[in-house]
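Homework help thread (please don't just give me the answer)

Our assignment gives two proteins as sequence + structure token strings and asks us to describe the second one. The first is just a warm-up. Here they are:
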Amino acid sequence: MRKLLTGLLIMPSLLWAAPTDELLSKLQKLESMKGQFEQMVLDQGGTHMQEAEGDFQVARGNRFYWSTEMPFEQLAVSDGNTVWVYDKDLEQVVVRPLSQDLGQTPALLFGGKPADVAEAFAISERSREGESVTYRLKPKGSDPLFDQLDVTFEGDKPRSMRLQDALGQQTVIDFRDLMINTGIDAALFNFVPPEGTDVIQQQQ
């Protein structure tokens, strides 16, 4: 009887731990990734509010290069410490320290330390079909940017992210033509504002 009770107590914890271990294993294999993205913002009822597309590159060390081409040109770059958000039409760049809070910076899911993901989120499995599996991440910290984040993998490749805020608005990001661990020039993550650009410094 004692052995049976012990098994009943242990089994639920193992079941809950499995999605976390599985997701961290996939993230651990991602040293870098690059490709194109399509992004949609939906209101609570599922109506399209905004669409965008562009290309991105992400590398370990909290570095990312996120270039939006349509409907307007905007660039977000991080070298792991600083973030530059450049608006070409406004000829303006906002410079601020990179928040290490994963609940505030979803891009760090792929470029940060996998161990930090387990500390920042409660992780569960939302769905699974063949090689496709979706994990649900709920921020543990206070005042997060979003209430929950669903990330879908096809095998070991990320395929999409879906973020939902407290008002039910959702941001859906689909990845296309994804390349994993092909190497990225580190110079890409150091942004130099074009001559004549207004530079706005922000504190964290």
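The one we have to describe:
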Amino acid sequence: MMEPSELPNRSVITIGELVVDWIATKKSADWDEPDTFLRSAGGNAANVAHALSRLGTNARLVAKVGDDLHANYLFSGLAAAGIDTTFVSRTSSFATAQCYVLTDQFDENLFYNWPKPNACHQLTVADLSDQLFDGAVALHATGISLTMEPRSSAVLEAMKRARKANLLVSFDAGFPTGEGAKARDKALEAMGLAHMIKVNLPELYYWLGEVEPCSDTAQLTQYAQMLRSQTGAQVVLLTLGANGSIIASSDSYFAAPVKVDTLAAVGAGDAYVAFVLSRLASGASLDLNWPQALTSDYFDWADIARSANAAGALATRTISASLGLPTLSEIEQLLK
């Protein structure tokens, strides 16, 4: 393990999912049909780490893999991307997680995770080294990572320690609704620990409960502010797919969509939140008062929302969640 002085400074930590994606190259909703798959690094934590690195921000990944050829493939790709894997550990007791992905004729994605359980689920509190937060400015976690023990306890503990260490805590509240009350309660606990929460529209409706679905920007802005108030977060990022996005802080900011030729929507949300994290990390000091800065004019939220839309749009250029992630220069060129 690296000494604290050797760890990259101003890093954003991503924790949780690291898997091998197998993505069907032709559209189908039938698992018996596809016979050609694209192999790619995947998992929410890995996707955000890759996106951060492409944007020029130091990314530090926390996850667990098996001791097999799939893990070797993932480590090779992470190293090539310049991602800090100091805190990615191996286990010989479980296989590296894999995810098979189909896209149907309506561009909806179908996922099959294998095996169960797998190494990705085995991240423990003991894997959270005292060095983990050295030089870091933010930590990002996702609801997907809270569905299985012991990983869910490790992720929540990392979020608690990050708050105590004065890091920005970010949480993607995407959540498989069929996982049961215990997993839902853990996601609610995570939202209570987060300074910043990212949701898409179906997720917003799920967490708010009984609200009337709508397409009105003003009403959706109110809904985003409702989630912010209910959770105690300083910022809510609401992505609306092809309809843009809304950032709700002490004020609200709507950004119109940016159009590109799209192959698949996998990874757009990860690219969006990674851009926001990259901008916040680059503009923050290590002793920044995050609750105060996030609700003041310290950050240009209107510009962040516009550029994050471009990042999310560019991520849809390929069927892989990681291969199409944009660089800062590509985002700037698109916005011109």
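TA reply:
I won't write it for you, but here's a hint about the kind of observation we're looking for: The CA atoms of residues 17 and 121 lie 8 Å apart.
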